[in-house]
């Protein structure tokens, strides 16, 4: 209860004091006004009010309201216009504006500074001036001048000057008066207590000086006004006395000559001094806000006694305003305000600096204490680090400090480090010593840290790798000392060497790898071009290595490769490099020591024969004795503009020719091989484009019986590319090698089945052995038969004899499944391949197709005639039908007919064509 009473009493007293301060400040300012409606360039009440709201917020509203209301009654006599009239309305609006101005300014500044009243930083002081003066006073000044203009106090000629006067007055008040209030009442007091002397005292002194100057200027202006009016009054008196004017003549004189006497800006009252009666008046109805500022003159003319009173009108002050004097006052007040703000900034910065110094001093003291503790810890840490910390005098080349770990790392006692002359120089590897010396000098010259790696001899005689960080501390410059931290990186170096070795050498055989060989061959190629000499590259591939690997396992294959590599290393004196490219592929390169290609080929061929002979010697691995032959390809370098990769590819191409020609031999690259490869590559691209663009075409060739009646058709695949047809003998092999045969084969079967379904004619389709052995082949055939409702005997699959090579159980299973579906099976090109009677007996076959090569030679070669006769007879005994293909002459047809052939096919009857054309040609 007592606390509440104390709080309320304090609140009441504070607001009464604030109201009194506002009234006093307004009274001083009002008294200092020297002309109507223009105050001095400082309105102290504004600075007090804005500072109060900034400090106390809502708690200062009561004192603000009371102070402004009392000032309005005491000095502006607002109570005299009370009532329902325009004047009272304007007075109330002016009072409301006077109250809202500090509320807006103080609250805005308080909000922007988030309640912080210390105003220490320049940014905070600027925010206070901006939001507490510049912006809100601009608004309030505009409102004040608008209201006074509307009430008639200002006119269009002086309203701008009045607005500027109001605005500057409020701003300067905040700049000069507000800091004084803040110094005595703002919180925290620690931020303002010292400013009472450093900010408020200079501001008060400046304000007092300005006040004295202002008051003297005001008195000077009033004295000038009074002197002017006295002079005019004396002149009128002199004219009246000297000319002995009667009352009427005196009135006439005043009425006629007041303009010439420059008295139009005065109110004139001429009275009979005896009776006090008003004889003549001029401008007495004009606004007069300072009636006390006047002069009264008395004179006698004859027996008449007169008194004349002159009072300046409001417009007089506008015309007689002393701009130079008032500008001086304004500059003085502005200087005082800027000085006050400057002192705020300076003292705030000093406080922040002092605060930062204290903070850093505390941190420094704390750091010093920690440093004392850490120095001891540091020495223990250094001594226990797996590194050697050392310091050397570079002029004397003598170690002046070394950490204890040096003995455990390199084995030398610390006394040897410190006492033995040139200790470190003697232990550094001779090849690395110049680099270390140069780095020390460089570190000393540039003052930068330098890292380097070098070798140091261990006490056991071995050299170990160290990474050292050289440093020249600034405090050691005069003594020419260098510090270092050596870290043993021997294991890391060894690991790096291993990684480097793995990057350029084959992990299994320890031979150079592909990248290493290509780099070395590039050097050989450049040297050969420079010297105009020639060398050779040989590409080796072990024959049937995959079969061995699959049979005995990869571990056995790896051991065999190691043995092969060891045998190849025997030839290192005769070659520039031998490398393993991967798998069972090896590459050799001879030096470019021959003057022409002929000698190069001769020398390389002799070397190749020696290699073939050496690698053909049987290998004994555990209980296995294995003979492994090798196929070689040879290419000469340099070869026109061929790059390293081109030369290796040429040797690779030649090696594949060796394999095609029977293996275990050497083939020398020729440009024709490149043409062949280019053609194969072209065909591969054609095949892939055909798959994407559906450029496949099926042609149909009819198959006839003995009566020359069409019984079925063979579907023959073509590719239409760049307006030309490409035939199977050009693309089938490439299709099988690239795997395109699978997708192409599925397309042919589906297309043939759709033809069967559309025209109800039997069709035979060629199937590759790769396609036949593919997983899912039977499933695909089953799907097509079901999708197109293919009747039994309508679809025939023609397979070469190579199909039966492989898993017998798989072959029998698939043939039986096809037979169950009603799909007929024909063995195509019979007699040119496997030709085993065993598979004819075991698997269900419907047709044998005699190869066209036997048909062509029947007329000229008796052996071909016998073979054809034998095939037909054998087929009859096995219950198989025989189809002869490639019949081109009537003689061939008659011979086959006589031998008992069942069906006939060839150009004699029809060329392959689309199905409709083929049917019409038979009809």
Structure characterization notes:
- With 923 residues, the chain is of the alpha/beta class.
- It contains 32 helices and 25 strands.
- The strands form 5 sheets. Strands 17, 18, 19, 20, 21, 22, 23, 24 and 25 form a 9-stranded mixed β-sheet that branches. Strands 6-5-9-8-7 form a 5-stranded antiparallel β-sheet, with helices on both faces.
- α1 (2-31) runs parallel beside α3 and α6 packs antiparallel against α8.
- The chain is elongated and about 185 Å long.
- Residues 34-39 have low confidence and may be disordered.
Salient structural properties:
alpha/beta, five-stranded antiparallel β-sheet, 32 helices, single chain
Compact description:
The chain has 923 residues and is α/β, with parallel strands linked by helices.
Class of secondary structure makeup: alpha/beta
Q: What composes the largest sheet?
A: 9 strands, mixed
Q: Helical proportion? A: 55-70%
The rounded distance between the terminal residues' Cα atoms is 130 Å
């Amino acid at each position: 209860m007592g606390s509440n009473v104390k709080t309320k009493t304090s609140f009441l007293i504070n607001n009464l004091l604030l109201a009194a301060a506002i009234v006093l400040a307004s009274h001083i300012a009002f008294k200092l006004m020297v002309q109507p409606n223009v105050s001095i360039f400082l309105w102290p009440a504004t600075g007090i009010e804005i500072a109060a709201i900034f400090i106390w917020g809502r708690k200062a509203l009561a004192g603000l309201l009371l102070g402004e209301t009392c000032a309005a009654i005491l000095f502006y006599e607002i109570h005299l216009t009370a009532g329902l009239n325009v004047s009272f309305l304007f007075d109330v609006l002016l009072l409301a504006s006077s109250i809202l101005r500090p509320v807006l300014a103080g609250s805005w500044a308080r909000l922007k500074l988030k309640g912080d009243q210390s105003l220490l930083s320049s940014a905070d002081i600027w925010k206070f001036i901006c939001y507490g003066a510049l912006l809100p006073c601009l608004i309030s000044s505009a409102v004040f001048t608008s209201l006074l203009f509307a009430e008639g106090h200002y006119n269009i000629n002086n309203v701008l000057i009045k607005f500027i006067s109001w605005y500057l007055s409020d701003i300067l008040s905040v700049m000069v008066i507000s800091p004084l209030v803040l110094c005595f009442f703002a919180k925290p007091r620690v931020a303002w207590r010292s400013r009472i002397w450093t900010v408020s005292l200079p501001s008060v002194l400046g304000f007092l000086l300005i006040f004295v100057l202002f008051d003297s200027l005001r008195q000077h202006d009033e004295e000038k006004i009074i002197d002017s009016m006295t002079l005019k009054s004396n002149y009128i008196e002199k004219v009246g006395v000297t000319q002995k004017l009667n009352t009427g003549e005196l009135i006439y004189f005043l009425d006629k000559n007041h303009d010439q006497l420059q008295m139009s800006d005065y109110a004139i009252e001429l009275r009979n001094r005896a009776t006090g009666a008003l004889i003549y008046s001029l401008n007495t109805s004009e606004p007069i806000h300072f009636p006390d500022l006047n002069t009264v003159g008395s004179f006698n003319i004859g027996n008449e006694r007169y008194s004349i009173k002159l009072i300046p009108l409001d417009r007089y002050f506008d015309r007689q305003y002393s701009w130079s004097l008032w500008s001086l006052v304004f500059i003085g007040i502005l200087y005082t305000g800027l000085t006050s703000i400057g002192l705020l900034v300076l003292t705030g910065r000093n406080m922040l600096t002092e605060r930062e110094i204290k903070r850093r001093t505390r941190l420094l003291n704390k750091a010093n204490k920690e440093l004392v503790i850490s120095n001891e810890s540091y020495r223990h840490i250094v001594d226990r680090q797996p590194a050697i910390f050392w310091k050397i005098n570079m002029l004397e080349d003598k170690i002046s400090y070394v950490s204890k770990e040096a003995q455990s790392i390199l084995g030398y006692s610390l006394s040897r480090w410190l006492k033995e002359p040139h200790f470190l120089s003697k232990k550094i590897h001779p090849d690395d010593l110049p680099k270390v010396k140069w780095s020390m000098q460089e570190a000393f010259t540039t003052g930068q840290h330098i890292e380097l790696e070098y070798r140091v001899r261990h006490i056991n005689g071995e050299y170990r790798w160290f990474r050292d960080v050289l440093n020249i501390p600034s405090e050691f410059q005069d003594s020419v000392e260098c510090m270092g931290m050596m870290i043993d990186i021997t294991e890391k170096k060894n690991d790096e060497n291993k990684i480097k070795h793995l990057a350029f050498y084959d992990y299994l055989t320890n031979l150079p790898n592909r990248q290493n060989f290509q780099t070395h061959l590039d050097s050989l190629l450049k040297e050969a071009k420079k010297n105009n000499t020639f060398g050779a590259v040989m590409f080796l591939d072990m024959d049937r290595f995959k079969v061995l690997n699959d049979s005995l396992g990869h571990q056995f294959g790896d051991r065999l490769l190691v043995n092969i590599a060891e045998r190849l290393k025997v030839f290192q004196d005769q070659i520039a490099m031998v490398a393993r490219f991967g798998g069972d592929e090896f590459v050799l390169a001879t030096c470019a020591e021959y003057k022409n290609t002929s000698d190069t080929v001769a020398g390389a061929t002799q070397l190749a024969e020696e290699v073939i002979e050496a690698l053909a010697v049987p290998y004994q691995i555990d209980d296995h004795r294995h003979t492994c032959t090798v196929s070689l390809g040879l290419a000469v370098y340099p070869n026109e503009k061929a790059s390293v990769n081109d030369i290796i590819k040429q040797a690779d191409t030649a090696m594949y020719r060796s394999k095609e020609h029977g293996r275990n031999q050497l083939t020398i690259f020729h440009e024709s091989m490149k043409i062949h490869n280019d053609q194969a590559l072209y065909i591969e691209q054609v095949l892939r484009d055909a798959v994407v663009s559906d450029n496949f075409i099926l042609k149909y060739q009819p198959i006839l019986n003995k009566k020359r009646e069409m019984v079925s058709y063979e579907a023959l695949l073509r590719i239409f590319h760049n307006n030309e047809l490409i035939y199977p003998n050009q693309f089938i092999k490439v299709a099988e090698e690239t795997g395109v045969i699978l997708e192409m084969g599925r397309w042919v079967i589906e297309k043939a089945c759709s033809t069967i379904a559309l025209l109800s004619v039997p069709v035979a389709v060629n199937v590759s052995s790769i396609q036949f052995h593919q997983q899912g082949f039977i499933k695909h055939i089953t799907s097509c038969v079901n999708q197109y409702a293919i009747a039994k005997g309508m679809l025939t699959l023609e397979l070469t004899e190579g199909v039966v090579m492989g898993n017998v159980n798989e072959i029998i299973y698939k043939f039986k499944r096809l037979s169950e579906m009603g799909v007929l099976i024909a063995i195509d090109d019979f007699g040119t391949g496997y030709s085993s009677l065993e598979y004819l007996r075991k698997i269900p076959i419907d047709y044998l197709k005699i190869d066209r090569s036997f048909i062509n030679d029947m007329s000229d070669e008796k052996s071909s005639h016998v073979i054809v006769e034998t095939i037909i007879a054998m087929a009859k005994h096995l219950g198989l039908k025989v189809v002869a293909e490639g019949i081109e002459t009537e003689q061939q047809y008659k011979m086959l007919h006589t031998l008992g052939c069942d069906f006939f096919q060839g150009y004699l009857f029809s060329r392959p064509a689309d199905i409709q054309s083929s049917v019409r040609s038979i009809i």
